[in-house]
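WARN no homologs supplied; continuing
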Amino acid sequence: MNTLRTAMLLAAMTALFMGVGYLIGGSGGMVIALLIAAGTNLFSYWNADKMVLSMNRAVEVDEKNAPEYYTIVQALAKQAGLPMPKTYLIDNPQPNAFATGRNPENAAVAASTGLLQRLSHEEVAAVMAHELAHVQHRDTLTMTIVATLAGAVSMLGNFAFFLGGSRENNNPFGFVGVLVAIIVAPFAAMIVQMAVSRTREYEADRRGAEICGNPLWLASALNKIARGAEQIPNEDAERNPAMAHLFIINPLHGERMDNLFSTHPSTENRIAALQDMARAMGGVSPAARRQASPPPIQPDEPSAGPWGKRVEPTPEAKPAPPKANPWGRNPTGPRNVRSKGPWS
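OK structure emitted
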């Protein structure tokens, strides 16, 4: 259903572009605007991953300095039938994550240290499954196409401004047509662009829940991330708000409404959709639950670590110190016990 909605929105954007070209009164300006917008967005398409990762000061990690996080992504990528993406950590207390890259073979996923510290093992896995769903659906390509058409519509509006008074523009609607091309069309293109972004989030939620095996893990993760995003500012995202749509939850303050001007659906609606999905699945089967969930922790047993795993002291020898990550501390959970997790 969401795929159909995306196709319909893309068709609406294409029709809007062609309609504005007609209002201006010729195909020449329409073709020029499309070529300029396509060239600009193609450059972004090939370089957006480097730009976004740099803006967020992300650092690439591997199985040596972030073993559990890396292993989760590796196992989920295998489960989804995807190549292993490059894996990054962002030194930021706000829990959040995003995916980027022009195709599955050149993809990257990034999670903040706040996400790894605040979420359980299962919730982190669900979040990364969501990001891998974006990679699998080639949402970067979809949004590039939408951005190209939206940019072309805006350029046509500029052309209409300069050509509005010309008698040679053949505009059949006169001043009203020029006004529509200058003001209404770019505004409509922005609304369609945001609607496509919201639709892709619902689709990534659905596919991410399928990859990790339990929609309720992702529902719980979205709730925690949304609350964290409200309380903890993301200064890098605030400085570069244009990249906010990449994150699983909008990292900007005051962006919670599910309306025409939002890049993300409301968290409440997403959680409700995931809960409906869990009910439709009839819950998780006992076999899947035994395979996917760590053993329950009894009240008299040692408390769980940041990943929801048992951390038991080793009387025979002191635990080995955790391997340092790029910031000299360990945001990915304890490493002294390597009991089998859901995907390891």
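DSSP finds eleven helices and four strands in the chain.
OK
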